[in-house]
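Lab notes, practical 5.
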Amino acid sequence: MPRAKQISAWVEDRPGTLGKLADALGEKGVTIRAFMAAAMDGRGFVRLVVDRPAAARKILTAHGWESTEDEVVEVTVPDRPGSVGTVADRLGAAGINVQYAYVGTAGSARSMNLYLAVPDVKAALKALR
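Output from the prediction step:
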């Protein structure tokens, strides 16, 4: 079960900003594997898992977007009802709190990647073995 680098960025909360961010990454050949976006405290906030985190950070900085990098747990699960619950139950049984999580899949997918932010990545990986 791998760990993944997650990039979090503060951006403008206005129409077109997510497109600008995605375009900036795409123009430099950085692939977005997963993301979540929200408006928080009057600003836009985006969490990304990409194939090239260091390149993504440079691109974000060049555009004036403040960013940070964190480690999250990446779990590949079957794309079927109950899969996320199984993972969450195992972490809960091990006393590990999930701070947030996100997943994305197409209807034709057989599996999906679930990204979980937890206080102790090492303990979560152990609980999910």
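Observations recorded by the TA: The chain has a mean pLDDT of 93. The two ends are 7 Å apart (CA to CA).
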